[in-house]
Amino acid sequence: MNTLGHGFGALQALHLATVLDNQDPDNRGRVKVRLAIGDMELWAAVLTNSAGPDYGVSLLPKIDEKVVLAFISPEVAVVMGALWSGGDSHPQEAREVDDVYCIRTPSGSQLKFDDSEDSKIDIKTSSGYHLEITEAEGGKVLIEKGSESIEFSNAEIKINASSKVSIEAAQVKVSAGMVEVEAGMSKFSGVVKCDTLISNAVVSSSYTPGAGNIW
């Protein structure tokens, strides 16, 4: 209800407000705000890019955020957007030409689009997971957490793990001109079958030579 003590004409201007609550009791995506003048408190809808039954864009302002409020009528208010003010810091450093678009959550998770010459998309979580997609130097996709990483570049795939890499499948097929394995020991269970075996030495508890072996 309008408690400003003014007519609707006074409400037709934009107003600054502070978010008091974002848990709408009617589950309509509204936030409760207090106007900077008059101490008026009300529930206001939040303007968004899409809003439909069980779909849409939901980025509700947090409690204590400063928002801009507009009135459709004395009883209906809409949050037009939020703004940084006072000691609140912008999540992105200012640059002369800002080609970076960023969404960052209070916990530190971040989605960043870089539209500069080396176009890049960067996703980070608060726990340290990182996904980077860049078009520089032929393109690269990097997924990492600490020292573990998977990197897809123009003509190469790299997998780094500090402990173990596991592959499980009903069948694994590898096609390559050459497969090189560097290990202190390679262990196979079951039967190992090959067309040609070239070895400097064979150590086995039992060995059955086939045709062509020299005793």
| Beta-strand content bin | 25-35%
Largest sheet: number of strands, sense, barrel closure: 7 strands, antiparallel
Strand order of the largest sheet: 8-9-10-11-12-13-14
Find the CATH topology of one domain: OB fold (Dihydrolipoamide Acetyltransferase, E2P)
Total strands: the figure is 14
Q: Residue ranges: pLDDT <50 for 5 or more in a row? A: none
Superfamily (CATH H level) name of one domain: Gp5 N-terminal domain
Helicity level: under 10%
Number of helices: 1
Structure explained in plain terms:
The structure is a single chain. The protein is mainly β and 215 residues long. Among the domains are: 8-83, Gp5 N-terminal domain (OB fold (Dihydrolipoamide Acetyltransferase, E2P)); 100-160. Helix content is 2%, strand content 34%. It is built from 1 helix and 14 strands; from the N terminus they run αββββββββββββββ. It has one helix at 8-11; strands at residues 15-21, 31-35, 41-46, 51-52, 55-56, 66-73, 76-83, 100-104, 110-114, 120-124, 130-134, 140-145, 148-152, 157-160. The strands form 3 sheets. It has a 7-stranded antiparallel sheet with strand order 8-9-10-11-12-13-14, with no helix packed on it. Strands 1-2-3-7-6 form a 5-stranded mixed β-barrel. Strands 4-5 form a two-stranded antiparallel ribbon. Strand 2 and strand 3 (41-46) form a beta hairpin. The radius of gyration is 31 Å and the shape is elongated. The model has no long low-confidence stretch (mean pLDDT 86).
